[in-house]
Amino acid sequence: MRTRRVFLNRLDPANEPTDAVVVIDVLRSFTTAAYAFAAGVSSIYPVETIAGAFRLLRRLPDAVTTGAIGGGDPIPGFDFGNSPLALQGADLTGRPLIQTTAAGVRGLGRFRHARALFAGSLVLGRATAKALLALQPEEVCFVITGEWVDRDGDEDIACADYLDALLHGENPDPELYAARVRNSDFGRRFQADNNPNLPIGDLALCAQPNRFDFALQASHADGQLQLKRTHTGQADSLRHFGELRNGLRLHENGYAERLQA
Length: 261
Hints:
Layout: E1 2-7, E2 20-24, H1 29-38, E3 43-46, H2 50-59, E4 64-67, H3 84-87, E5 96-100, H4 104-110, E6 116-120, H5 125-135, E7 139-144, E8 147-148, E9 151-152, H6 154-167, H7 174-183, H8 185-192, H9 200-206, E10 215-221, E11 224-230, H10 232-237, E12 244-245, E13 248-249
Helix pairs in contact: 5-6, 6-7, 7-8, 8-9
Protein backbone atom coordinates (compact mmCIF):
# COMPACT_ATOMS: atom_id res chain seq x y z
CA MET A 1 0.00 0.00 0.00
CA ARG A 2 1.54 3.27 -1.13
CA THR A 3 1.02 6.42 0.89
CA ARG A 4 1.56 10.05 0.04
CA ARG A 5 0.33 13.42 1.18
CA VAL A 6 -0.78 16.68 -0.34
CA PHE A 7 -1.49 20.08 1.17
CA LEU A 8 -4.92 21.54 0.57
CA ASN A 9 -3.64 25.07 -0.02
CA ARG A 10 -0.93 24.07 -2.53
CA LEU A 11 -2.49 21.31 -4.63
CA ASP A 12 -1.10 20.01 -7.89
CA PRO A 13 -4.16 19.38 -10.10
CA ALA A 14 -2.07 17.27 -12.48
CA ASN A 15 -1.41 14.69 -9.77
CA GLU A 16 -4.88 14.26 -8.31
CA PRO A 17 -5.39 11.34 -5.91
CA THR A 18 -8.19 9.01 -7.00
CA ASP A 19 -7.97 5.95 -4.74
CA ALA A 20 -8.32 6.33 -0.96
CA VAL A 21 -8.14 9.86 0.46
CA VAL A 22 -8.07 10.90 4.11
CA VAL A 23 -8.79 14.60 4.59
CA ILE A 24 -7.24 15.46 7.95
CA ASP A 25 -8.44 18.29 10.19
CA VAL A 26 -7.43 17.71 13.80
CA LEU A 27 -8.04 21.30 15.03
CA ARG A 28 -10.95 21.03 14.82
CA SER A 29 -13.40 19.98 12.10
CA PHE A 30 -13.17 16.22 12.22
CA THR A 31 -12.57 16.05 15.95
CA THR A 32 -15.79 18.03 16.34
CA ALA A 33 -17.47 15.60 13.94
CA ALA A 34 -16.36 12.63 16.03
CA TYR A 35 -17.73 14.16 19.23
CA ALA A 36 -20.96 14.99 17.41
CA PHE A 37 -21.46 11.30 16.65
CA ALA A 38 -20.68 10.54 20.29
CA ALA A 39 -23.48 13.00 21.18
CA GLY A 40 -25.90 10.95 19.09
CA VAL A 41 -26.13 12.58 15.66
CA SER A 42 -27.37 10.24 12.94
CA SER A 43 -25.23 11.63 10.13
CA ILE A 44 -23.20 14.69 9.19
CA TYR A 45 -23.64 16.75 6.03
CA PRO A 46 -20.43 18.68 5.23
CA VAL A 47 -21.36 21.83 3.30
CA GLU A 48 -18.69 24.21 2.06
CA THR A 49 -20.58 27.52 2.17
CA ILE A 50 -22.64 29.18 4.86
CA ALA A 51 -25.39 29.95 2.34
CA GLY A 52 -25.41 26.31 1.27
CA ALA A 53 -25.71 25.21 4.91
CA PHE A 54 -28.77 27.38 5.46
CA ARG A 55 -30.33 26.10 2.23
CA LEU A 56 -29.86 22.53 3.40
CA LEU A 57 -31.28 23.43 6.81
CA ARG A 58 -34.53 24.40 5.12
CA ARG A 59 -34.69 20.85 3.72
CA LEU A 60 -33.67 19.31 7.05
CA PRO A 61 -35.46 21.42 9.68
CA ASP A 62 -34.59 18.99 12.49
CA ALA A 63 -30.85 19.33 11.79
CA VAL A 64 -28.38 21.10 14.04
CA THR A 65 -25.57 23.25 12.65
CA THR A 66 -21.92 23.52 13.61
CA GLY A 67 -19.05 25.37 12.04
CA ALA A 68 -16.60 28.25 11.93
CA ILE A 69 -15.06 30.71 9.56
CA GLY A 70 -11.31 30.83 8.93
CA GLY A 71 -9.46 31.43 12.18
CA GLY A 72 -12.02 29.62 14.31
CA ASP A 73 -14.77 32.15 15.02
CA PRO A 74 -18.27 30.60 15.10
CA ILE A 75 -20.74 31.25 12.31
CA PRO A 76 -23.60 33.59 13.33
CA GLY A 77 -26.91 31.77 13.43
CA PHE A 78 -25.37 28.30 13.85
CA ASP A 79 -26.23 26.18 16.88
CA PHE A 80 -22.61 25.38 17.74
CA GLY A 81 -19.19 26.63 16.81
CA ASN A 82 -16.53 24.26 15.52
CA SER A 83 -15.89 23.03 19.05
CA PRO A 84 -15.83 19.52 20.49
CA LEU A 85 -16.02 21.03 23.97
CA ALA A 86 -19.36 22.66 23.13
CA LEU A 87 -20.78 19.27 22.15
CA GLN A 88 -19.85 17.49 25.36
CA GLY A 89 -23.01 16.81 27.28
CA ALA A 90 -25.25 17.70 24.34
CA ASP A 91 -28.03 15.27 23.46
CA LEU A 92 -28.32 15.17 19.67
CA THR A 93 -29.77 11.69 19.47
CA GLY A 94 -31.08 10.88 16.01
CA ARG A 95 -30.62 14.35 14.57
CA PRO A 96 -28.64 15.13 11.40
CA LEU A 97 -25.87 17.69 11.65
CA ILE A 98 -24.78 20.23 9.02
CA GLN A 99 -21.10 21.20 9.26
CA THR A 100 -19.37 24.12 7.56
CA THR A 101 -15.67 24.88 8.06
CA ALA A 102 -12.97 26.67 6.09
CA ALA A 103 -10.49 23.78 5.91
CA GLY A 104 -11.72 20.25 6.60
CA VAL A 105 -15.11 20.52 4.94
CA ARG A 106 -13.57 22.29 1.96
CA GLY A 107 -11.12 19.40 1.64
CA LEU A 108 -13.88 16.80 1.58
CA GLY A 109 -15.63 18.67 -1.20
CA ARG A 110 -12.40 18.96 -3.16
CA PHE A 111 -11.83 15.18 -3.16
CA ARG A 112 -15.41 13.97 -3.29
CA HIS A 113 -14.64 11.81 -6.36
CA ALA A 114 -12.06 9.62 -4.63
CA ARG A 115 -12.82 5.90 -4.58
CA ALA A 116 -12.92 5.99 -0.76
CA LEU A 117 -13.03 9.23 1.22
CA PHE A 118 -12.47 9.58 4.96
CA ALA A 119 -12.50 12.47 7.43
CA GLY A 120 -9.46 12.04 9.67
CA SER A 121 -8.38 13.25 13.09
CA LEU A 122 -6.23 11.93 15.90
CA VAL A 123 -9.20 10.81 18.00
CA LEU A 124 -10.11 8.48 15.11
CA GLY A 125 -6.56 7.42 14.30
CA ARG A 126 -6.41 3.67 14.83
CA ALA A 127 -10.01 3.13 13.67
CA THR A 128 -9.30 5.01 10.44
CA ALA A 129 -6.18 2.94 9.81
CA LYS A 130 -8.18 -0.27 10.36
CA ALA A 131 -10.87 0.88 7.94
CA LEU A 132 -8.26 1.63 5.29
CA LEU A 133 -6.55 -1.72 5.79
CA ALA A 134 -9.89 -3.45 5.36
CA LEU A 135 -10.42 -1.71 2.02
CA GLN A 136 -6.87 -2.49 0.81
CA PRO A 137 -6.46 0.43 -1.60
CA GLU A 138 -3.38 0.63 -3.78
CA GLU A 139 -2.70 4.14 -2.52
CA VAL A 140 -3.74 6.25 0.45
CA CYS A 141 -3.37 10.01 0.12
CA PHE A 142 -3.40 12.17 3.24
CA VAL A 143 -4.68 15.72 2.72
CA ILE A 144 -3.19 18.24 5.15
CA THR A 145 -5.67 21.06 5.69
CA GLY A 146 -4.16 22.96 8.62
CA GLU A 147 -1.22 24.62 6.86
CA TRP A 148 -1.85 28.33 6.33
CA VAL A 149 0.37 31.37 5.82
CA ASP A 150 0.71 31.75 9.59
CA ARG A 151 0.37 28.08 10.65
CA ASP A 152 2.65 25.09 10.17
CA GLY A 153 -0.19 22.55 10.10
CA ASP A 154 1.84 20.12 12.19
CA GLU A 155 -1.29 18.97 14.03
CA ASP A 156 -2.47 17.43 10.76
CA ILE A 157 0.97 16.30 9.62
CA ALA A 158 1.34 14.49 12.96
CA CYS A 159 -1.95 12.68 12.38
CA ALA A 160 -0.81 11.71 8.86
CA ASP A 161 2.49 10.42 10.26
CA TYR A 162 0.62 8.34 12.83
CA LEU A 163 -1.75 6.85 10.25
CA ASP A 164 1.16 6.18 7.91
CA ALA A 165 3.00 4.25 10.61
CA LEU A 166 -0.08 2.20 11.49
CA LEU A 167 -0.74 1.35 7.85
CA HIS A 168 2.81 0.02 7.56
CA GLY A 169 2.45 -2.29 10.54
CA GLU A 170 4.21 -0.18 13.13
CA ASN A 171 2.97 0.38 16.68
CA PRO A 172 4.16 3.89 17.54
CA ASP A 173 3.53 5.71 20.81
CA PRO A 174 0.43 7.83 20.10
CA GLU A 175 1.38 10.35 22.77
CA LEU A 176 4.28 11.53 20.60
CA TYR A 177 1.76 12.65 17.99
CA ALA A 178 -0.59 14.15 20.59
CA ALA A 179 2.31 16.29 21.83
CA ARG A 180 2.85 17.57 18.29
CA VAL A 181 -0.84 18.55 18.10
CA ARG A 182 -0.51 20.54 21.31
CA ASN A 183 2.74 22.19 20.22
CA SER A 184 1.75 23.03 16.65
CA ASP A 185 1.35 26.67 15.69
CA PHE A 186 -2.43 26.42 15.98
CA GLY A 187 -2.23 24.30 19.12
CA ARG A 188 -0.25 27.01 20.90
CA ARG A 189 -3.06 29.48 20.17
CA PHE A 190 -5.40 27.27 22.19
CA GLN A 191 -2.78 26.96 24.93
CA ALA A 192 -2.61 30.75 25.21
CA ASP A 193 -6.25 30.58 26.43
CA ASN A 194 -6.90 34.21 25.51
CA ASN A 195 -9.54 33.68 22.83
CA PRO A 196 -12.97 32.41 23.92
CA ASN A 197 -13.44 30.85 20.48
CA LEU A 198 -10.22 28.81 20.88
CA PRO A 199 -10.74 27.26 24.33
CA ILE A 200 -7.95 25.21 25.81
CA GLY A 201 -10.51 22.49 26.54
CA ASP A 202 -10.87 21.96 22.79
CA LEU A 203 -7.16 21.30 22.49
CA ALA A 204 -7.33 18.70 25.25
CA LEU A 205 -10.16 16.87 23.47
CA CYS A 206 -8.45 17.05 20.08
CA ALA A 207 -5.17 15.63 21.40
CA GLN A 208 -6.65 12.32 22.63
CA PRO A 209 -5.41 9.62 20.24
CA ASN A 210 -7.80 6.77 19.43
CA ARG A 211 -10.58 7.97 21.70
CA PHE A 212 -13.24 6.55 19.36
CA ASP A 213 -13.56 3.13 17.76
CA PHE A 214 -15.10 4.29 14.47
CA ALA A 215 -13.90 5.96 11.30
CA LEU A 216 -15.80 8.62 9.36
CA GLN A 217 -16.39 7.74 5.72
CA ALA A 218 -18.08 9.89 3.12
CA SER A 219 -20.71 8.86 0.60
CA HIS A 220 -23.30 10.62 -1.52
CA ALA A 221 -26.88 10.63 -0.24
CA ASP A 222 -29.84 12.65 -1.51
CA GLY A 223 -27.58 14.84 -3.58
CA GLN A 224 -25.31 15.77 -0.67
CA LEU A 225 -22.00 14.58 0.69
CA GLN A 226 -22.59 12.73 3.96
CA LEU A 227 -20.38 11.37 6.73
CA LYS A 228 -21.30 8.19 8.56
CA ARG A 229 -19.61 6.17 11.24
CA THR A 230 -17.83 3.14 9.80
CA HIS A 231 -16.54 0.30 11.93
CA THR A 232 -13.87 -2.00 10.53
CA GLY A 233 -16.27 -4.77 9.53
CA GLN A 234 -18.47 -2.27 7.71
CA ALA A 235 -15.51 -0.85 5.82
CA ASP A 236 -14.57 -4.33 4.65
CA SER A 237 -18.09 -4.93 3.35
CA LEU A 238 -18.06 -1.73 1.28
CA ARG A 239 -15.81 -3.46 -1.24
CA HIS A 240 -18.75 -5.73 -2.09
CA PHE A 241 -21.61 -3.25 -1.71
CA GLY A 242 -23.34 -2.08 -4.85
CA GLU A 243 -21.93 0.02 -7.61
CA LEU A 244 -19.30 2.74 -7.41
CA ARG A 245 -20.16 5.98 -9.13
CA ASN A 246 -18.12 9.19 -9.11
CA GLY A 247 -15.75 7.36 -6.81
CA LEU A 248 -18.17 6.95 -3.92
CA ARG A 249 -20.50 4.25 -2.69
CA LEU A 250 -24.16 4.45 -3.64
CA HIS A 251 -26.52 5.06 -0.78
CA GLU A 252 -29.16 2.40 -0.19
CA ASN A 253 -31.86 4.59 -1.71
CA GLY A 254 -29.98 4.71 -4.98
CA TYR A 255 -29.01 8.37 -4.96
CA ALA A 256 -25.50 9.28 -6.06
CA GLU A 257 -25.88 12.78 -7.38
CA ARG A 258 -22.95 15.12 -7.18
CA LEU A 259 -22.86 17.94 -4.69
CA GLN A 260 -24.64 20.87 -6.13
CA ALA A 261 -22.75 24.11 -6.36
